[in-house]
Amino acid sequence: MKRFDVVVIGGGPAGATAARHCSQNSLRTLLLEKKRLPRYKPCAGGVTAAALEELGFDLGEGVVEKDCCGVRVQVKDFQKDVTADRTLFCTVARGCFDEFLVKQASMAGAEVHDGEEALCVEREGSGVVVRTDKESYRANIVIGADGFFSTVRKSLDRGFDRDEVMLSVLCEVPLDEEEICRRCGNLLLVHCGFIDRGYAWIFPKRGSVTAGVGGAVSDTGILVSGLREFLRLHGLDDRVEIRGGHVPVTRFRHSVYDERVMLTGDAAGFVDSFTGEGIRYAIISGKIAAQTAADCHERGDFSLPSVSLYQKRCEERFGENLRYAARVKDLFLRFADLFMDTVVKNSRIMDRYLRVMTGEMDYRSFAGWVRLHLPALLLKRVFP
After folding, report:
1. How do residues 89-136 score in pLDDT, each as one tens digit?
2. CB contact at 8 A, 227 and 171
3. Exposed/middle/buried for 186, CB within 10 Å: 0-12, 13-18, 19+?
4. CB burial class (10 A; 0-12, 13-18, 19+) of residue 35?
5. Superfamily of chain region 2-64+91-161+250-323
6. How confident is the model at residue 375 (pLDDT cuts 50, 70, 90)?
7. Burial, 292: exposed, middle or buried (Cβ in 10 Å; 0-12, 13-18, 19+)?
8. What are phi and psi of 123, to 5 degrees?
9. Domain residue extents for the chain
10. Of 169, 180, 192, nearest to 82 (Cα)?
11. DSSP state of 160
12. Which residue, among 273, 302, 41, has the nearest Cα to 165 in the 3D structure?
């Protein structure tokens, strides 16, 4: 049985980042990805400037599909462009993006096995054994970055509560570059309140757009029919294949670690529940998991108290931000009409919210600013 210091399961942003940083910390690292790379993954593919800054290196023209400087927000028949004079987002095809990140991990020294599925994770004596459909590996510590249906998470016997799971359905619509430019320019298109408890979007890519609808899991049928209606509304072909994916959004009720095991990214539910952004938190949690693994190896201590530092660091780094994101989402669902009529249509609020999406402002500061100014905005709405 081959031995490693760390086995990382999952080849997305969290796993690739964790494997790269573990290798840079001189840990013998194995990265397992069950599909051959590049592989298709249902994802809108929006990467914020904050996520790129966390990544720490340029993606390059071959990975970036489009650079975007803002968002076109639509509420019913009202449209508003919220922009900046710099790139705030880029769009990527997740297959290409993930493969690029895994290559960075490989270049840092990680051993990469794609097309090899982890079947179970078992703690045995002074280590962890990962059994795959091809081999078994022994490690001092395992990092789970294998998404919503995480094998590692199942090994800990932990799931998500009902209010911690959302669903997105999406499709790729081929368009020529001239048509993409006419429709989107360099903006992401977001239609708030297109369906109850959710929103729809169009993200420009290279030679296509990704259109999708996100909302509650219980509304699966509504989301699919809503996406086809959304496509027709925008004059897009609705005879395309629609794919879906669960979006876990933790409310920090459950631990994301155990002795010799850590969960990152979607496996931990580290997703902004209001916008659905997960890539930024996948990258951050991957880095924190790698640093925690390095600290455990340096001390020779993989006990529960030692590994628990991982969750503490995640809480300190972005826990409050994700909690406030959940509160904003809850308020949006409770006061949807007020939110859309007053908040979305206000330039000052939307400008600040754009700063939340780029990482320049956290949700707590944003919520405090809105709370301070909302009475005046409501008065203007009642007495225009």
Report:
1. 999 999 999 999 999 999 999 999 999 999 999 998 899 999 999 999
2. yes
3. middle
4. middle
5. FAD/NAD(P)-binding domain (3.50.50.60)
6. low
7. buried
8. -80, 125
9. 2-64+91-161+250-323, 163-248, 335-382
10. 192
11. -
12. 273
Which DSSP string do the residues of 262-301 spell out, in sequence order? Answer: EE-HHHHT-S-TTT---HHHHHHHHHHHHHHHHHHHHHT-
Residue pointed to by tokens 């290196």 = 57
Which amino acid is located at 61 in the chain?
Answer: E
Joined together, the tokens standing for residue 74 give: 């639509």
DSSP tag of 53: H
Q: What is the C-alpha to C-alpha distance for residues 282 and 268, in angstroms, rounded to an integer? A: 9
Measure the CA–CA gap between 200 and 328, rounded to whole angstroms.
Answer: 18
Cβ–Cβ < 8 Å for 160, 246: no
CB half-sphere exposure, 123, CA atoms < 13 A: 14
Higher-pLDDT residue of 310 and 60 is: 310
Identical fold for domains 2-64+91-161+250-323 and 163-248, yes or no, is no
The residues that bridge with 91 in the sheet, in sequence order, are 46, 66
Sequence-ordered list of residues with C-beta below 8 angstroms from that of 378, at least 6 positions apart, any chain: 342
Residue at token pair 């944003």 = 366
